[in-house]
Amino acid sequence: MTKICMYFQVHQPFRLSSFNYFSRSSYYFDEEKNKSIFEKVSNKCYIPTTRKLIELIRNHPQFKVSFSFSGLFIEQALKYKPEVIDIYKELYDTGNMDILNETYYHSLAYLISEDEFKEQVEMHRKLIKDIFNHNATVFRNTEAMLSNDMAQKVENMGYKGIVGEGWDKILGWRSPNYIYQPNGSNIKLLLRNYRLSDDIGFRFSTVDWKEYPLTADKYASWLASTQGQTLNLFLDYETFGEHQWKETGIFDFLEYLPKEVAKYPHLEWAKIGELVEMESKDRVDIPHILSWADIDRDLSAWLGNKMQDSAFKRMKELGSFILKSGNQKLIDVWRKLQTSDHFYYMCTKWFADGDIHKYFNTYVNPYEAYSNYMNILNNLKLELGLSPLKSQVI
Amino acid sequence: MIGWEFPPYISGGLGTHTFELTRKMPKDVDIVFFMPDRGEISVPWMKIERIRVAVGFGPYTTFTDSVLSDSIIKSVENYAKEVCKMAKQVNFDVVHAHDWLTVLGGICAKRENGKPLVFTVHSTEYDRSIGNPCPWVMDIERYGIREADGIIAVSKRIRDQIIEKYGADPNKIRVIYNAIDSSTFDCGLKIKPGEDMILSLGRLTLHKGLDHLLRAAKIVVEHHPNAKFVIAGKGDKFKDLLELAIDLGIEDNVFFLGYVSQEDIPKLYARADVFVMPSVFEPFGITALEAMAAGTPTIISKTSGVSEVTTNVFKVDFWDAEKMASRILEILNYKELSEEMSNHCRNEAKRITWEEIANQTRDFYKSLIKQ
Questions:
Q1: A366 in reach of chain B (CB within 8 A)
Q2: Which of A119, A291, B220, B352 lies at a C-alpha separation of 20 to 30 Å from B367?
Q3: What's the mean pLDDT in B7-13?
Q4: Across the strands, what pairs with B42?
Q5: CA distance B28 to A281
Q6: Active site residues per annotation of A
Q7: Minimal Cα distance from B315: which residue of A?
Q8: Domains of chain B (ranges plus CATH)?
Q9: What whole-number distance in Å separates Cα of residue A45 and Cα of residue A25?
Q10: What is the 3-state secondary structure (H, E, C) of A326-353?
């Protein structure tokens, strides 16, 4: 038997208000833009895709899916479009949906401190428990960040599995389609098959791809001919209807996939939590942090250029002041500033890496993203009674 | 090709443009270049024919009172006549004219020889005069636009404008941008003594928008008393700008350099911490590319042709002094921003080459010859 695990990542950042050098305001987030984007994506992706999944599970009871929602996504859904949460609850009630835990703020908290990281995971755990009454067994760090050390910490927090990228550099000759354990802990690694995942996520509507058009029967035949314990198809949920528009036929693809997979008796859908019960084949060494982004699969989409490093450092420095202040509103703002997207917008790699960065970027260029972030940090410092511009020594 | 000015006899971008364009033109294109006689001149890559006419003004002269002296009209007409006469003795495939000063000769040569005319529009009377055009000049431009077989616009803005204001046939137009020779401006390092220097360079005319920069300067100086604004170039707005600086109370922070020689310009770029091009209208805006090549973080107005081809710069509305001031202060105060912009704008400018522009121009010639 070969399991097939489809896991979808669902996230919306709190986009920042536009601050110039002189702006003084307590309104850090662009409500209007966040609301309109949330409504747009709800209508194009969240609502139709989730409805489709409910329908598919009703027609194919063996079909299963898994989800990870950032806390920021749920916060915005409750604020702007509560019916989105209702539909997800309906999907959860089918019994064929699993949910992962992650950092509430879809943040780089792991790189700030262990305490901060644990706090944000705990917030997320509570949120998922409150909304879905679900206890997650699998963890996914922001942007699928993963390393030996991280896996060990996550195991100590009680998780049985952790998501990562099935990247050739850590696997060597080995296949991503098996269960492994990292060096230093016994948590199960659930590795993404990036070729099969990106066939849907990136290449689906690429007209000059030799496999275009990708149909469900062709894709199911690829799954059937791939060896392994589990084929992990980890996708950005917005693939459906937002990255790949409805007109590309992505919903038809989804519609026919369970039916086509059912033609192969050795294929079986699995929730992500079921995979951690499987036996590990080997140990994998992940000394440096791996991610699912870009061609480099490292942190360089978020950190690495001078602006990203400086913004992150200045934000991190504020931590002890913010936490000491006990001001819940400012603590929340500070944590929302840790969201990975803000650092992604400052990335200067996109000349080489192509359009995916451009697509997500709400700024004209990385310099505007950085300036805005720094202007906001200075405003936050003033609110805290600190001097702007100067580096804060902790 | 019919030119008007040429190094070392230049007052603006038209001379640099024809110099670099002809220099980098692929070798399968032979050029004979006509220009008014301004003195001894020769270059190895083409033959230059000097035409004896009196020229006491440049392509950027604005005729504010809408009155042209007889001598100006006469020299433009005489130039056209003489060019046309000489062109009869040349066996050419395409005649290429630049701006209104030269296009009459181009039209005449086209008619006499039955060959296609290419007309490059670098700027228009409509813009230069900011909505108060000299009808005679505009008529010549309209005539050239109608008669040309192919029109080169140096930006999409110019293209849209000649369609809208001059009734040009969109099918005849191709946008081919300007470029720079980045090696001239890239000193490889930044010179950085104590004070922070904000540079602007260009003729001191209304459409360069320097009054907006001064208003931004006022805000910058309030937050950053060390900021020095250096304005290089001369022009008819000098007195107004100086008075404005005094009225704003920032005369100690603003320096007017007047004319700066070609060899000093790269040093200025290298010294500057920020380059600002606040133009109300800028058909292209080559100085922005030069500053970028020098690795100087650059702020340009959205209403410039160069903003269509650059990404590693800040783009602002020329009238938004507060935003302009904010961008200047961000570059001055956020060291990492300035470093990243510097690296990336230098690389970007390097990729915008005259070779590419000359190739595109050659291809445009070929497409017209085929027709």
A1: yes
A2: B352
A3: 78
A4: none
A5: 66
A6: 143
A7: A364
A8: 13-178+353-370 (3.40.50.2000), 182-350 (3.40.50.2000)
A9: 33
A10: CCHHHHHHHHHCCEHHHHHCCCCCHHHH
Residue B175 neighbours by CB distance under 10 Å:
18
Q: Quick one: residue A84, left, alpha or beta (phi over 0 = left, psi -120 to 50 = alpha)?
A: alpha
For residue B256, CA distances in Å to A25, B203, B233 come to 37, 11, 8
pLDDT at B68: 62
Classify residue B115 by its DSSP letter.
-
Q: Please report, as a single letter, which amino acid is at residue B295.
A: G
Q: Output the CA torsion B299→B305→B309→B314 (10° steps).
A: 20
Cross-strand bridge partners of residue B34:
B2, B49
Q: Which residue has the tokens 């314990």?
A: A229
> What are the Cα distances from residue B63, in Å, to A154, A255, B78?
75, 70, 20
pTM of the model: 0.91
> CA triplet B237, B238, B239: central angle to 5 degrees?
95
B28 touches B301 (CB < 8 A): no
- What pLDDT score does A355 carry? 47
pLDDT at B271 over 80: yes
* Contact across the interface for A305 and B340, Cβ inside 8 Å: yes
* Whole-Å CA distances, A124 to A102, A107, A225, A238: 6, 12, 38, 21
What is the structure's pLDDT at B72? 79
CA distances from B215 to B219, B251, B313, B320, B337 (A): 7, 12, 21, 9, 24
B chain contacts of residue A389, beta-carbon cutoff 8 Å = 333
pLDDT of residue A340: 96
> What pLDDT score was predicted for residue A152?
98
CB contact under 8 A, B334 and A365: no
What is the spatial distance between Cα B257 and Cα B197, in angstroms, rounded to a whole number?
13
The predicted pLDDT at position A354 comes to 41
DSSP A101: B
**Residues of chain A under the 50 pLDDT cut:** 352-357, 393-394
pLDDT, residue A357, reads 47
